[in-house]
Design brief:
Blueprint: E1 9-14, E2 18-24, E3 30-37, E4 40-41, E5 44-45, E6 52-54, E7 59-64, E8 68-73, E9 76-82, H1 87-106, E10 108-109, E11 112-113, E12 118-122, H2 129-142, E13 148-151, E14 164-169, E15 186-189, H3 199-218, H4 221-226, E16 228-231, H5 238-250, E17 255-259, H6 263-272, E18 280-284, H7 295-311, E19 320-325, E20 330-334, E21 356-358, E22 368-373, H8 381-384, E23 387-397, E24 402-407, E25 417-424
Parallel strand pairs: 12-16, 12-17, 13-16, 17-18, 20-25
Antiparallel strand pairs: 1-8, 2-7, 2-9, 3-6, 3-8, 4-5, 10-11, 13-14, 14-15, 19-24, 20-21, 22-23, 22-25, 23-24
Helix pairs in contact: 1-2, 3-5
This protein binds adenosine-5'-diphosphate (ADP).
């Protein structure tokens, strides 16, 4: 973003327990730094006098517990200061989770420390679920814990591209610009942005992830005691509600945080989970700062999320354009989904939603985002294996039998097996 900064530096003084809410412009980034006092961005403590560059469209808040002065450089799309925040109630939840974590380290069963709190955050779209998850994780990491972040929100994924079910250990507070680190993440590709495209597959991937995390936690006492924070979809009715129940049970959650005044949701969950005696429910107020994102904006966000994967949040990654022969790859789809199956017979009811089907390579793959699977066999392993990363198909030359794709990695594909969903990406 060279050359775009300089003349518009302003100071903003924040009173204790207030926050400065900012929407970065659509086309230009914004720089910001902390001058005096203490301030945090969703639980990430800002160091003094270090400029952070926030990319266009980012929406966030700088909160201070005891007062702070910050400096901004650039014009914002929208900004205001508010003293009304639910931060005290969020911090109280964090403190009770700390108690649970200490309790797990001191209580061992068969010399394995017991598991720390498994918190699941539920609520409507735009109730601030991901933001609260980030705060709880950042505060825990600041206190020396290493909780796991589980992201089940395929519509607006936080760890990697949309359409994924994933988890990552949080070993230090998450950088407010770069977001969650990807290097230790376990990622499964669902391939669609709405679960109804293949409910059975979505559930299977959630179960796989829970199983893998359970296995990993046995060998890692620190992560086991730190517990998890699970982020969910804003789809809380009908099948969405069933999926919430499924996630709560699959991860054996200990705390359900319901964000926003979702009375019916709380009552239904309490009724349906009444046999889980140890399950705690916490109602938390939604922050007035949470930005309402209409469906168009959410679509734009999904697109920029995929763009960030290939080009970096601040456009700092090199994207590689590569060509392979048809015979170098095998493309599979899991189950049946209407957009790619042209034959009516394939759309017949009763199809196996977990069936692995080879896909013919032709022009319909152009702009599709494919996952690179670690599966060794083209069978159920495609569902149980995690993925190495993603490519986006740019061209299919059926004459020469060559596929051109982009990838954030210069290396050859780590596997021949690619998974196709309905997710697409094109330069906007
Ligand atoms: P959900 O996960 O429930 O869909 P998010 O946590 O992703 O909601 O929040 C929606 C948007 O609102 C995000 O862009 C987030 O950065 C922004 N946001 C959340 N809390 C605040 C706040 N206090 N001030 C300003 N923006 C906020």
């Amino acid at each position: 973003y060279g050359g775009e900064f300089g003349p518009q530096i302003r100071r903003v003084k924040l009173e204790k327990q207030s926050e400065f809410r900012i929407e970065v412009q659509r086309t230009r980034p914004l720089r910001l730094r902390l001058l005096d006092g203490g301030a945090e961005i969703f639980g990430y403590e800002l160091p003094h006098e270090v400029w952070f560059t926030f990319p266009p469209r980012m929406i966030f808040a700088v909160f201070t517990w005891y007062g702070a002065t910050i400096e901004t450089d650039g014009i914002t799309e929208n900004e205001y200061t508010s003293c009304e925040t639910p931060m005290m109630s969020y911090l109280r939840v964090h403190n009770s989770l700390l108690v649970e974590r200490h309790r797990s380290t001191s209580s061992t069963r068969d010399s394995v420390p017991s598991q720390g709190p498994r918190v699941i955050i539920v609520g409507d779209t735009d109730s601030g679920k991901s933001t609260l998850a980030k705060m709880l994780l950042n505060w825990a990491a600041k206190d020396g814990w290493k909780p796991t972040y589980v992201d089940l929100n395929i519509g607006q994924s936080s760890i990697t591209i949309p359409g994924t079910v994933s988890a990552t250990p949080i070993e230090m507070p998450v950088d407010p610009v770069e977001g969650f680190p990807l290097d230790k993440a376990i990622v499964h590709y669902f391939g669609h942005t709405t679960p109804t495209t293949n409910l059975r597959l979505y559930k299977s991937l959630v179960e796989e992830l829970a199983r893998e995390l359970k296995q990993e936690s046995f060998g890692n006492a620190e992560s086991r005691a730190s517990g998890m924070v699970i982020d969910t979809m804003g789809f809380i009715v009908r099948q969405g509600y069933e999926l919430l129940l499924h996630a709560i049970r699959t991860f054996n959650a200990t705390v359900v945080i319901v964000l926003g005044q979702e009375e019916t949701l709380v009552n239904d969950l309490k009724k349906d989970l009444k046999f889980k005696k140890s399950l705690q429910f916490v109602n938390l107020e939604k922050s007035a700062g949470v930005f309402f994102r209409g469906s168009d904006f959410r679509k734009t966000l999904r697109n920029s999320n995929i763009q960030n994967y290939f080009y970096g949040v601040t456009n700092d990654l090199t994207v590689y354009t590569k060509t392979v022969k048809f015979s170098d790859v095998q493309v599979y789809q899991i189950g049946d989904f209407p957009e790619t199956s042209s034959s009516t017979s394939a759309r017949r009811r009763g199809n196996d939603p977990l069936k692995i089907t080879p896909v013919a390579i032709d022009e319909h793959l152009v702009n599709k985002v494919l996952a690179i699977s670690y599966a060794k066999q083209p069978d159920h392993q495609i569902i149980s294996s995690i993925v190495a990363g993603f490519v986006c198909i740019k061209n299919v030359n059926t004459g020469e039998e060559r596929i051109t794709y982009i990838s954030p990695s210069a290396a050859e594909l780590p596997s021949k097996t690619l998974i196709l969903g309905t997710l697409e990406w094109r330069v906007t």
